[in-house]
Write a structure and sequence with these properties.
single chain; mainly alpha; Growth Hormone, Chain: A; two-stranded antiparallel sheet; 15 helices
Length: 408
């Protein structure tokens, strides 16, 4: 069974890389696309908000479908529909139809939402003491996707002859990347759900994961941390490219800056996952909130290209630590049969943050400047951190193990 799990993890990592390469185009090119189509700076956050809306609409239903039909079939169907939607983005942008582009991005985000939950399948196949590293390994596949995207954009720029024409070529290539996911998911047999049941059956009745503080606060705190990291990361990716463009940086350079940010998100996910397994989920989650909040401010406030890029990289590190640790904790608290639904809830909340933060950030930055952005960041970090610290204070009496598969 171990050889099958390793093969499945490689297949999932490949799908993660291809999915990331496509999704990365929304923050990297979305604001620039709408600025080109409409000339209105206020609409530069629209692409990310539409992305969040699409995923909000289908995150929970996607999780339920995964619990009912298995992970592989849902992932494959998602990739097929995403290929059609990515081609629609290219076509409508070529026709210079702003609302057609908006509708296509919304459709892409909605149908591809299950591909944002590939980590559920990784969690299925591993016991709690290895779950952080397993999720980290899967996210590491996205580091490859972070390189694929700007490489495709650079080649498209040379072939197309102009930056805006290259956008069409890039989205057309993204559709082909989604098609390439299909054979990977067809090879995902037996389904991770079935492997997860075998892993659970092999554990002794008293098997335990990494201890965490006891109490009902763990699940909502994990969901809040998961959502906060997604919201802050999205805010930085919405505002930083526009700020870089305002300071005269080329589109191709901005895409590489986002790529470096994405490398920070995924390249260190394995050691960060191991850290969450060894030190515990909560300490890593708290550290992630602080790092993500501070770095998000730096990515928006600093005008120098390489300094802003460095802060974007640190935003990625903080995001990775927080999402890997909170993903592992949500998995620890869920049975195989209900894991898809619980991740659907977490994704629903997180995509709500992805939906709201670009619009909120654009309005606050335009009306109140960096001081308003700082206030949003403080509030975003303070709420989940308070939930974590308050929960730890209430359970100061001792450590209680988290059951591997509590089934509740």
């Amino acid at each position: 069974m171990q050889s099958t799990i390793r093969r499945h993890m490689r297949l999932l990592a490949g799908a993660q890389a291809l999915s990331t390469a496509t999704f990365q185009l929304i923050p990297a090119l979305g604001g620039i696309m709408f600025l080109h189509l409409t000339g209105d700076v206020a609409l530069t956050g629209l692409a990310l908000s539409l992305s969040g809306l699409g995923q909000v609409l289908t995150a929970y239903p996607g999780g339920r479908l995964m619990d009912r039909f298995g992970r592989g079939p849902v992932f494959a169907g998602s990739a097929a529909l995403a290929a059609v939607a990515a081609a629609a983005v290219a076509w409508t942008f070529h026709l210079h139809r702003p609302w057609g582009v908006a509708a296509s991005i919304l459709l892409l985000s909605a149908v591809a939402a299950p591909l944002r939950q590939l980590s559920v399948a990784a969690a299925d196949m591993h016991p709690p003491e290895l779950r952080g590293r397993a999720v980290g390994f899967l996210f590491f596949g996205s580091a490859v996707g972070a390189v694929i995207s700007p490489a495709v954009t650079s080649v498209s720029s040379r072939l197309a002859g102009s930056e805006m024409a290259a956008v069409v070529w890039t989205w057309s290539a993204a559709a082909l990347l989604q098609v390439a996911i299909l054979p990977l998911m067809r090879a995902l047999r037996p389904d991770p759900v079935e492997l997860g049941k075998l892993v659970t059956a092999e554990q002794s009745p008293g098997s335990e994961g990494r201890p965490e503080r006891a109490g009902p606060w763990r699940l909502p705190a994990a969901v809040a941390t998961y959502a906060a990291n997604w919201g802050l990361m999205t805010l930085s990716m919405a505002l930083a490219p526009v700020a870089m463009r305002a300071h005269g940086h080329a589109v191709s350079d901005i895409v590489w800056a986002i790529a470096i940010h994405s490398i920070g998100m995924f390249a260190f996910s394995i050691p960060l996952g191991a850290l969450a397994d060894r030190m515990g989920r909560v300490p890593v989650m708290l550290a992630s909130l602080l790092l993500t909040g501070l770095s998000t401010y730096g990515s928006v406030a600093v005008p120098t290209f390489w300094a802003a890029t460095a802060f974007l990289f640190l935003v990625g590190i903080g995001w990775s630590a927080g999402v890997v640790a909170s993903t592992a904790l949500i998995s620890d608290l869920s049975s195989v049969a209900e894991r898809g639904r619980r991740f659907g809830v977490a994704e629903f909340v997180a995509r709500g943050a992805v939906l709201g933060y670009p619009v909120l950030g654009s309005v606050v930055a335009g009306r109140l400047g960096l001081g308003g952005v700082a206030a949003v960041l403080v509030a975003s970090v303070a709420v989940p951190a308070w939930m974590l610290l308050r929960g730890m204070a209430r359970t100061r009496q001792g450590w209680t193990p988290v059951p591997a598969e509590p089934g509740s």
